[in-house]
């Protein structure tokens, strides 16, 4: 799945078409714009992209970064209107919105949790999965957490989540790109520095992250 968001529909569409040609199985679209978008404009944005490609689209709702908040009602409407819109990444951190998406769609619209510290509660609320860069640092416990919730082994899931939570909170507080790239380097997988204007994690942050990864 490739994120293809741009500030105009035309640029987003070109990126989506390129992703499809390059072999992407799906694209993720965050509706970003200098201007505050109306629901009519958001719907048309997704319709235009959907008409231009033949692979599934994940709607990405993250108003904290995009400035655009797509309500559960709008998300379900787009799911029912745009043929290849087939899933949503919900990153508001509001569990009631996730439950509302499930209710309005009759359970037909898969929703993925995008809030790292919220993962345990989101999975319990019916999230199909967890869409984030954070699992790259400690993948197995996240798989174990997912499996435990799905098997209704709640006490096991709670224990795994309690162990993971300090790392998840640190990653989000320190900016996802910055902390994940630093963590990967500390684990011996160098992927370079974040792109400016983001700066690499400072020495204090690296020491704290090293401790979190070592303690885990």
- Helical content stands at 40-55%
Order of helices and strands: EHEHEHHEHEHEHHHH
How are the strands ordered across the major sheet? 1-2-3-4-5-6
Total DSSP E strands: 6
Please, what is the average pLDDT?
A: 92
In DSSP terms, counting alpha (H) and pi (I) runs of 4 or more, how many helices? 10
Reported CATH architecture of the largest domain: Alpha-Beta Barrel
The coarse overall form would be globular
Q: Give the low-confidence spans.
A: none
CATH topology of the largest domain: TIM Barrel
Determine the structural class based on helices, strands and strand pairing: alpha/beta
Q: How far apart, in Å, are the first and last alpha carbons?
A: 29 Å
Q: What is the top-level CATH class of the largest domain? A: Alpha Beta
Number of domains: 2
Q: Please identify which CATH superfamily of the largest domain we are dealing with.
A: Aldolase class I
What does the largest sheet look like? Answer: 6 strands, parallel
What integer value in Å does the Rg equal?
A: 18 Å
Percentage of residues in strands: 5-15%
